[in-house]
Amino acid sequence: MREGFGDLEWLARTRAEGDVEAWLALMPYARRIGISALPDPQSEGLLFRLEPCEGNVGNVLLPALHGGVVAAFMETAATLDLMLATRTPRLPRIVDISIDYLRTARVTPTLARCSLLREGRRMGNVRVCAWQEREAVPVATARLHFVLGDPAEGGA
Amino acid sequence: MTHDQTPSNADWRRALTRFVTVIPHTRELGLEVLEVAPALTTMRLPWRDDLLGDTTRGLVHGGVLTMLLDTVCGSAVLPALPAPEVCPTLDLRVDHFRPGVAGQAIFAEARVIRITESVVFTEGTLWQETGRPLARGIGNFVRLGPRNTPEGFAEALFAEENGHA
What we know:
The complex is a heterodimer of chains A (156) and B (165).
Chain A: H1 8-16, H2 20-24, H3 28-32, E1 35-39, E2 46-50, E3 57-59, E4 64-65, H4 67-85, E5 91-101, E6 110-119, E7 123-131, E8 138-149
Antiparallel strand pairs in A: 1-2, 2-6, 3-4, 5-8, 6-7, 7-8
Chain B: H1 9-22, H2 24-29, E1 32-37, E2 40-45, E3 52-54, E4 59-60, H3 62-80, E5 89-96, E6 106-115, E7 119-129, E8 132-142, H4 145-148, H5 153-157
Helix pairs in contact in B: 1-3
């Protein structure tokens, strides 16, 4: 099999190297909306960043980012964070997402941090918090469930 | 449409087409409004390769589905209200039944379940093949009311009605 999420050797290697860029390279929509990952100065983990691209605007009057784009950003962050944080290489497949919109997301950079609240044998639960100016003033919070697939079996 | 008439379904289809065309994200993705009735709105997102979330397996990014449900549910709110109001998303829940696959348009429909003084409750569904839903969404939208709706919001939705050939 060519390199990709279904290739266990590739997945284990990119994961060991923390090569989130290699994962993002296989996610065209995540690239389209301008998602990147950076080291989290407060932990061993990652911070995620959404660029304030003109194409991400959902309300031209305010203006504000499209709430659905903010959700897509938070889902991508949760997926990538989970792929690094699990005990062994797993392939997450989203089951559900619930997002609360707390404030208008302005057309400025948006950051997100994730917490893996539970890693079970089959299911994972991730919480995501997204903010702009200050982390204490979140623009949205989300919680997601994922099936944790076994990459050796070609997925979930 | 003249000012003293209730908009027809065709007026609303043009108004929501304008709505999703003014929004940069949905304009760039080429989102189309197929049908609008007071209680049900249907849209179509044409296929393009940058909707993918996994190029090796050819699967649609789950976030595309959330974005689409937010858009279709939020649009369905407008024709269901007595007069158009700005209604931001309060919260959204999406259940993923099966992944979307490369190469096929994604259809979206949403209905308004209940309108209260302060909230509009909606539900939406997405599919590529009829009878095989990809995802279900439940979106609640806040009614900002006439006082917080910009002057001319309704007029802007129905603008250019008479200018088209």
